[in-house]
Amino acid sequence: MMRLLILEDGKWTVTAAQELNAAGEFFCPLTESLISLGSNYQKSIAGLISMLGKFSEHGQRMLNDGICHEIDENEKLFEFIKGDLRLIWFYGKGNKIVICSHCFIKKGRKTPPPEKAIATKIKRAYFKLLDANIEVPLFKEDP
């Protein structure tokens, strides 16, 4: 089972994927990856969150290649960039929804294959549910 946590809701809905873990609880790779970063990344995290808000209002058009670009043409994966942090995302059904998979620290020129694999797995699980006519619900956490 999967659900989508609404992070920003404007003209575009920006979400984070959550899947059930072995204990039957929802697990959010994005939240977990952000929590695992050290305190020295707080400004970069705030910058990424600001980008999500801007994307929600304006879509990808307002983001230049220096802060957002495609990283996998076949899988249609993209990344938001803030310093050496990367947040991988893809378009959901209808192209007015964005699904974020996770965040990581980029150390080289190319996005490491294991990072792409995490996002690809989430994307394929999402579209497999939709193809089986299983709704992937949106929800918002209480503040």
- Helix fraction bin: 25-40%
Number of domains: 1
Distance between the termini: 24 Å
* SSE class: alpha+beta
Q: Mean pLDDT, rounded to whole units? A: 92
CATH architecture: 2-Layer Sandwich
Which spans of ≥5 residues are poorly predicted at pLDDT below 50? none
Radius of gyration: 14 Å
Number of strands: 8
CATH topology: YaeB-like fold
Q: Provide the β-strand percentage band.
A: 25-35%
| CATH class bucket | Alpha Beta
What does the main sheet amount to? 8 strands, mixed
Number of H- or I-type helical stretches: 3
Shape: globular
Order of helices and strands: EEEHHEEEEHE
CATH superfamily name? RelE-like
Core attributes:
143 residues; alpha+beta; YaeB-like fold; 3 helices; 31% helix
List the helices and strands and how they pair.
Layout: E1 2-9, E2 13-20, E3 26-27, H1 29-36, H2 42-58, E4 68-72, E5 77-82, E6 85-91, E7 97-105, H3 113-131, E8 138-139
Parallel strand pairs: 1-8, 2-7
Antiparallel strand pairs: 1-2, 2-3, 4-5, 5-6, 6-7
How would you describe this protein?
This protein is an alpha+beta fold. It has one domain: 2-Layer Sandwich (YaeB-like fold), CATH 3.30.2310. It is 31% helix and 33% strand. Strands 1, 2, 3, 4, 5, 6, 7 and 8 form an 8-stranded mixed sheet that branches. The longest helix has 19 residues. The two termini are 24 Å apart. The mean pLDDT is 92.
Task: Write a compact overview of the structure shown.
The protein has helices at 29-36, 42-58, 113-131, and strands at residues 2-9, 13-20, 26-27, 68-72, 77-82, 85-91, 97-105, 138-139.
